[in-house]
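Write out the 3D structure for:
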Amino acid sequence: MKDQVVLRVVCKITIPFILLFGLYVITHGELGPGGGFQGGVIVAASFILYCLIFGKKQGSRVLPERVTECLAGFGVLLYAGTGITTMFLQGRFLDYEVLWRRGIIPETGGGLGEVIGVTLVEYGVGITVASVMIIIFNMITEPDEDSVQSEV
């Protein structure tokens, strides 16, 4: 793909917008259609597009596999940590109302505890889904032709 200049330029221009749309879908998930899973897949698709155009070797420079694995764990920890925090505050798992009842979040009358709790859960799911999709992509794809030739 090194000779496909137009494709490479268009990819560099569109990837930031794809990432922004993925973050929008994750954030908007508490209010309407979308959420962590859909947004995570969109974010992962931007990275996969980058790897398809520029090569897997360049993609692993942008987002190393170790970082992806750590992000997958962090996403699960964020989701589960939100639920466990509400349990430690003597509520049920993911009972967001307990966040303002215990004074963690000031009560504003607008359900701020629920908004923050759902947003944390959506981002936890989004980070996990994006990371796992990237890990699966890295596992099922073959190494770049350049790296195979240099090993021989």
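The mean pLDDT is 86.
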